[in-house]
## 1
Amino acid sequence: MTAIVLFDGVCNFCNASVQFIIARDPKGYFQFAALQSDIGEELKKKHQIPEKLNSVLVIENNTVYNSSDAALFICKHLNGLWKVFYLFKIIPKTFRDILYKFVANNRYKWFGKKDSCTIPSPEIRNRFL
């Protein structure tokens, strides 16, 4: 079983986050697709995801997780102490998403953005859809 992480392919913070996940997911549970890619567009349509959603998404078994739910879902499946962050799930989503949206709304200002999606290296290309 695998889960798909849909991320903003032009966001420097999002690309660094994908590399972070890959380094802590040696079994390859997560696969990745940029929201701007053809497969990203197909998955958004298939799962009726709004075009202007400002969030990382995780799709597992036709269930879509967004915002802080997606981030915590990812932490739950990473190697090491990152699993501990899943305990934040006890905090109501409304409150968790306030912090998530603050970072999401400022990510370009703080970390910058690229003109186009990053091409994955040959070593990890099989993780990208």
## 2
Amino acid sequence: MDTLRAYLSNLSPAEQADYAKRAGTSIGYLRKALSIGQRFDGALARRLDEESAGQVQRHDLRPDIFGDAPAGEAA
């Protein structure tokens, strides 16, 4: 979740909204989930990873589903 929070903090509000939309959700949902520590389902974690070009890794969001990041990749 820290990588998602850091990634969003480097985007403008419009870019945040666009990122969320491309991932199939809303920035409001992402903010609420971050604030209460809610876990994303696997499909959303995958889309957040893909739409951030790997800067927000699915392994970081849901290690229980995707396992640890592959060797050589930052989590």
## 3
Amino acid sequence: MTIFTRHIHALSVALGACLAGLGGAAAQDTHTLRFNHVLGPNEPFHQGFEQWAERVAERTNGGLTIEVFHSAQLGVEEDMIEQIRQGANFGQNTDAARLGNYVPGIAIVNGPYFVESNEQAFALADSPTMQQWQQELADQHGLKVVCFDWVQGFRNFYTNKEVRTPADLAGLRIRTPPAPIWQESIRALGAEPTAMNFGDVYPGLQQQAIDGAELVYPNITAANLNEVLTHANETKHIMLVNFQVVSSQWFDGLPAEFQTALVEECRTAGQETSKVVAEATEAARQTLRDGGMTIVEDVDLDAFRAAGEKAYETLGLTEAKNQVQSEMAGQQ
């Protein structure tokens, strides 16, 4: 080998090493989030999550990909949250009730009549106390809240009898998720809470394991629950604010620009989807009425609001509730 060919060979080796290094760096800069939610593919939230994924992929030039899985395809919500805490590249649509298992105060967002409009829900992001709780979730429990601008609307009691006052719920077993604030809220409002996964509600009603459920209107139409329920009682007892969570360890490993894209596009898609949900709620309500479901509108909301305070008292969350509501009032 001549001196010239040796130089060419050396340059080729060096160039190959550089290209290999670039390929390795590119591979390291590609990230995937497998995002799970319990709702069906026809729910507005599913389309919203797909839109979030598209925008993040576009903004990061494919560097961050979100794969959306509906109907709890990746697993039960509580199990998913535990895997997320261990650092897995999963995301989960969840609520303050479940997050309250780790940071009790944040559960107030899921309490009776805590917020009563989309605007109030979006304003929660500016609450110093809410920001403190989110930091605690990330630092001490491995759960990074990406955003919580996803409002699923008012939850009502859906039963096979008319409900106008808390007394009308006496003795009724109402399906609720398995979290303290949810259980105590339904108990305070007059019913017997029964923990059950969302996917089990239809057969649970068929088999009379439960007497009703508290959900939002689009849940009823999407899951055909009007086939096993006759009354929609408009108690509007919880405006359900959804939280999108990922592993804080996984999030911290993302490039800064990917973190920003994930959060900002989450907020934008969430607020847009919340408006779609509000429209879908009215459409679902009309569909159910047209299909023969009885819509009970003249509910004694004052009586339900007063009854709901007991949930905060029982869990020692009255002070936390008052604090955050005071911060929100100061922003107006």
## 4
Amino acid sequence: MKPKQSGPPVEICGARNVTTQHNETVLYDVFYTVAGVYIKAGEATFTNTVERLNGKPAFHIVAEGKTNDKYDWIYKVRDRYESYIDTATMEPLKFVRNINENGHKHYENITFNQSAKTAVTDKGVFKMPDCIQDVISAVYCARNINFDRFQKDDKIPFKMFLDNEIYDMYIRYLGKEDVKTKFGKFRAIKFKPLLVKGSIFEGGEKMTVWVSDDPNHIPLRIESPIIVGSVKMDMMGYGGLKYPLSSEKK
């Protein structure tokens, strides 16, 4: 039996990147369902380029999601998230959120000073704890977790700064299983992230994520209930991966 993990997990605090690289792109189809009927309602993309910010090399992650024009009358989404992440420490340096969700618009711009342990927003300067994450940096740090160190139902904690507040968050590891997506069948690692309640997603452990059980750890499928119905995202294309996608089952 594997020993239980105790104390702050090194995978989040002091993470080192072993999964992503310059020019990685992952594409998703977004499906919306009510009463068990799925329709392709939109697309999402995650791109990673290495740039320099304040003299430091940084991963510039851009995550964009949009509904198809013909479904905008149901629920229009035009979301763009950006995070600049220190390539050496995987700590966020800057975070930008620009969203339009069914007419609800919100813009957020955060500058993190990791040496001073502060975050600067349009509301002021906030003192930060160690190992703080933003929404996107948390995703890319989670990709670097060595899940073999954990047992089913173990929680992997971290802290996230969003909307001028610090949240105590965690990922609950659910083990490994095969998952069949619109792209193909994969060996996958399964977990549930704790969510902050927003305009689309409910709070709590409602979302389920499957990532590839290979060195890339790219998200393959994401499922979650939303305010009305539920959504499912399936990986439908990729480019520039650091390793072969060896988890795909032929």
